[in-house]
Amino acid sequence: QTGHEDKAQSWVAKGTNRPIASHELEQALGEERVQWLMEQTGLPKDQLLAGLSDELPNAVDRLTPNGRVPTDEELAQLK
Question: Going by C-beta distance under 8 Å and a sequence separation of 6 or more, which residues neighbour residue 43?
């Protein structure tokens, strides 16, 4: 919805993960979610967004090894 669908799709699809910059991630998440994450983690905004922009593409990639979002049953097996 914020113009970064192509990057998120690259994380799910097989192949190279496209990076996302901190400011793009902030735009995609929105102010309320960023604030909530800051409260939950205790991290300052710049550190939170930098960490997420580094780790999120790889985390999504690992959770979608078949190039698609897993079913609820597949997710339950990961626990």
Answer: 37, 51
pTM (two decimals): 0.76
The tens digit of pLDDT for each residue in 9-40 reads: 999 988 899 999 999 999 999 999 999 999 99
Residue 9 Cα distances to 23, 26, 32, 75, angstroms = 18, 18, 24, 19
Query: Residues 6 or more apart from 26 whose CB is under 8 A from it?
Result: 34, 45, 49
Q: Which two tokens stand for residue 54?
A: 């580094």
Cβ-in-10-Å burial (0-12, 13-18, 19+) of 24 comes to middle
